[in-house]
Amino acid sequence: MLDYLEIYKKIVDLPGVILEFGVYKGTSLVRLMTFRDLLETQGSIKVVSFDIFGKFHDALEMEAYRNFVENFENNGGFGISRQELDYHLKNKGFTNYGLI
């Protein structure tokens, strides 16, 4: 977690948007927005996360990819749904984010 904090410190006061690709269960996203709120303000920078939210699609054509997904989900479970993540983020008081 301290690594994330040190990385975030390097972008304080830079203009732009933080993009996260692959939310899974939302842990890193919550961490990013917590650091933003501690070091800046919620309005200072938007955090946008991209994911499929939830279970990987069943219509995977590459067998090697299907094997990876099966192992991943068997060991770690499914990712969080967009609706559940949005509920938890709002419950924590986070604003200025996008879930795509």
Describe the structure.
This protein has 100 residues and is of the alpha/beta class. 45% of the residues lie in helices and 13% in strands. It has four helices and three strands. The chain has helices at 2-9, 27-39, 63-76, 82-91, and strands at 17-21, 46-50, 97-99. The protein has a three-stranded parallel β-sheet, with helices on one face. Helix 1 packs across helix 2. The longest helix has 14 residues, at 63-76. The protein is elongated and about 45 Å long.
Shape: elongated
Largest sheet: 3 strands, parallel
Q: Structural class of the helix and strand makeup?
A: alpha/beta
Q: Ranges with pLDDT <50 over ≥5 residues?
A: none
- Mean pLDDT reading: 88
The strand order across the widest sheet is: 1-2-3
Total number of strands? 3
Number of helices: 4
- Calculate the terminal CA-CA distance, rounded to whole Å: 24 Å
List the helices and strands and how they pair.
Layout: H1 2-9, E1 17-21, H2 27-39, E2 46-50, H3 63-76, H4 82-91, E3 97-99
Identify the notable features of this structure and list them briefly.
single chain, 45% helix, 3-stranded parallel beta sheet, elongated, alpha/beta, 100 residues
Short account of what is shown:
This protein is an alpha/beta fold and 100 residues long. It has helices at 2-9, 27-39, 63-76, 82-91; strands spanning 17-21, 46-50, 97-99.
